[in-house]
Specification:
single chain, 601 residues, alpha+beta, 8-stranded mixed β-sheet, 20 strands, 20% strand, elongated, Arginyl-tRNA--protein transferase
Length: 601
């Protein structure tokens, strides 16, 4: 197991063999890169970052890099040059034990619980799309929830399906779009009023007269009376699109004299009717739970090492195409592996004491499964001080569950629980916060959060930082003394404002952050891993350079301190290399530059 003392000892050694690479951080500095910005969509190369390729990286060194504003995409590490880039990105974190869930976050947890216990009614709302636009997978899951003999749930479900059919008719031009049509009302049919239809052995249990209401609305605005103004025709049109939805909950559907009727296909209901017992009774699901039980969903959360999994990849592909509008040929196995599977982090085994959690340190995938079906995957790094959230992909058919928010709450709770075993593990890192980009501001809803000062690398309360960031995008956040006395902290007001303005289903880095790696790869600048020294190099003065003598250089299979090999270079090569090492030390800090291996070939 690699620990801090061992890493420091090895990195400070003047020479070592390449065989020790697996216990050390080995990086290649690719320097500054410019690319187009995925946030402000500037259209030019306004995003400026410093990049590193990591052959290997200890979790201790990556933790230190995070605390200097770095982040990884696969094996690629990048850090915005905050004073120059178009959209300054501030590292954001919160202390898990201090976390106070907002009203919306509490609602997300309760919504998931209702979904799992079978009591969630899926309705059209501002928060999610209802069955009117649901895919077949989503309808199957919804149908599973209402398949029990719960009258209220079935009525809501059937009403939503009819409303969906009306919208489809409008979209297809069968109904005029300028008319506000009434919402469907489905009613249960009392047992003593049910009639067996001629030639059918099915029992009528629900009915709707929406067709008459639609025709009345049409006749109020249309002078010419057509076939669509006949309730029988409208009922037939709508019922044709309800067959699968009805069958999903044990019913069949048929148009009858302008009514849309739903019949039971279950033998138990027929038997109850035959012996005179009520087949369905309001309130029975709660008054007689032994007879009427809601189907419950089983949620399982698994934590696994970062490896390729076919089911995960298929879910990722579906998510990228439907949510981020990627083209199918763009979402390949190789791009997926490079982005979310490949990791330079050296896994640290649990050691049975309080320094490492039971899962170990490294890169992981947290899977969310309902009834054994994969519905979401959180890509995370577990480090000595934190759980760092990298990305989340989820089933678009379950958008109504706000899985991004729900998974973030689960990860925060995981940190709380893990801290009991590993006291150093205290924080939840949410990636980058970009105040100038509205779609990234939702991360501030996880309170109380802190932002990293881009100059002094001190953590500053978001409530204070926001006052500064409201003035300009780039701020030295630790310069908050002038605001400290005037900040009026109103947690409830701030919380409500954030929720109203910055609602989002995701807590992870935005999909556009995947572009960071590609932007570096496609850069016209030289990013070869070997040290290339041009023959004619315009040298710059060396004044004000840092002392780079203790930086460990990886060269020809050996690890050597720069001061021990300095004389091996000519004047031009030495000046060039020292200028590069100076920029590298500025980017990663003195401690890390003297601990990690700077590879030049």
């Amino acid at each position: 197991m690699a620990d801090k003392k061992k890493i420091k000892s090895e990195a400070s050694s003047s020479t070592s063999t390449i065989e020790n690479v697996k216990s050390e951080s080995v990086v290649v500095d690719v320097g500054r890169r410019r690319s187009s910005c995925g946030y402000c969509k500037s259209g030019s190369d306004t995003s400026i970052t410093h990049g590193l390729w990591a052959h290997s990286l200890t979790v201790y060194d990556y933790q230190a890099l995070l605390d200097r504003g770095w982040r990884r995409s696969g094996c690629f590490l990048y850090k915005p040059e905050m004073e120059k880039t178009c959209c300054p990105s501030y590292t954001i974190r919160l202390k898990a034990t201090d976390f106070v869930p907002s009203k919306e976050q509490v609602r997300v947890s309760k919504r998931m619980q209702r979904f799992l216990d079978g009591s969630l009614n899926i309705k059209n709302s501002d928060e999610h799309k209802g069955p009117s636009s649901a895919s077949s997978v989503q309808k199957d899951i919804i149908a599973d929830n209402v398949h029990s003999n719960n009258v209220d749930q079935k009525i809501v479900y059937l009403s939503d399906q009819i409303n969906s059919g009306v919208l489809t008719c409008v979209e297809q031009g069968k109904f005029p779009s300028e008319i506000q049509f009434p919402k469907a009302s489905v009613k249960s049919v009392a047992p003593n009023k049910r009639k067996l239809q001629a030639g059918e052995a099915q029992d009528l249990v629900y009915t709707s007269n929406i067709s008459f209401q639609i025709v009345a609305a049409l006749r109020r605005v249309q002078k010419n009376v057509g076939t669509e103004n006949d309730p029988k025709v409208v009922a037939e049109m709508l019922s044709n699109g309800l067959t699968n939805s009805a069958l999903a909950i044990g019913l069949s559907v048929k148009a009858c004299n302008g009514h849309i009727n739903f019949y039971s296909t279950e033998t138990q209901i027929q038997a109850d009717a035959t012996v005179g017992r009520p087949a369905i009774s309001h309130g029975s699901s709660s008054n007689n739970p032994e007879k009427f039980q809601v189907k419950r969903q089983n949620l399982e959360i698994r934590l696994k090492r970062s490896t390729f999994d076919r089911e995960e990849y298929e879910l990722y592909r579906k998510y990228q195409i439907k949510v981020h509008n990627d083209t199918p040929d763009h979402v390949t196995e190789s791009s997926y592996k490079r982005f979310l599977i490949d990791s330079p982090l050296i896994f640290v085994q649990p050691n049975g004491d309080s320094t490492v959690p039971s899962c170990g340190f490294g890169s992981f995938h947290q899977q969310y499964l309902v009834n054994g079906k994969l519905i979401a995957v959180g890509v995370i790094d577990i480090l000595p001080k934190c759980l760092s959230s990298k990305y989340l992909f989820w089933d678009p058919d379950l958008a109504f569950l706000s899985l991004g928010k729900y998974s973030a709450l689960q990860e925060i709770n995981w940190v709380k629980e893990s801290q009991r075993q590993c006291p150093s593990l205290q924080y939840y890192y949410l990636g980058y916060y970009i105040h100038s980009c509205n779609k990234m501001r939702y991360k501030a809803a996880y309170r109380p959060s802190e932002l990293l000062c881009p100059l002094r690398y001190e953590w500053v309360s978001f409530d204070i930082a926001k006052r500064l960031l409201d003035r300009k995008p780039y701020v030295v956040l630790s310069d908050f003394a002038t605001l400290q006395n005037e900040v009026d902290l109103l947690p409830d007001a701030i919380e409500d404002q954030i929720e109203q303005e910055y609602e989002s289903n995701d807590i992870r880095v935005d999909g556009d952050e995947e572009m960071s790696e590609g932007a570096f790869e496609d850069s016209d600048d030289d990013d070869d891993e070997s040290l290339v020294l041009p023959e004619s190099l315009s040298l710059t003065p060396t004044e004000m350079r840092k002392d780079v003598s203790n930086i460990v250089i990886g060269l020809r299979g050996m690890h050597l301190k720069y001061k021990d090999i300095r004389q091996a270079f000519g004047a031009k090569e030495r000046n060039y290399l020292e200028s590069q090492l100076d920029k590298y030390m500025t980017a990663v800090g003195t401690d890390l530059s003297e601990r990690m291996i700077y590879s030049v070939g």
